[in-house]
Write the structure tokens for this entry.
Amino acid sequence: MLEDIVPDIVVYIIAVIVGIATGVVQFFLLYKFVTSVTGGKAGIKTLIFAVTQFLFPFIILLTCAFLFPGGLMWLGIGAAASLVTCAVVKFVFMSKNKDTPDKNKGKKSIDAPVKNKAKKSKEVPAKKKGK
């Protein structure tokens, strides 16, 4: 339908841009859903993320199929590429944050438990005398 009005290259570019945006939104929804499930928060918010994560790409792909079916492949390529890119970037940032040592690791924390400085007596238990 839209392919009759604009040139093919413009349709492909629009499809790729929509695919990239779709992939980023999909990654955000999937990340929020997975973190809420693994965090033990099974509430209405988790259910909303699950339903949205399932329906969002379906609606976008269906809309693209009706408006410009020739760009459907390019939309899928853009969505898949942005999903993979977002996952790799998130993984790299999370692994860098875990590997960096804390600046305050050598210092004592205010909330650290106070050690008991009282000396424990080293009494030896009395031996039982044999019969």
About this structure: Residues 7-96 form one domain. The first helix runs from residue 8 to 38.
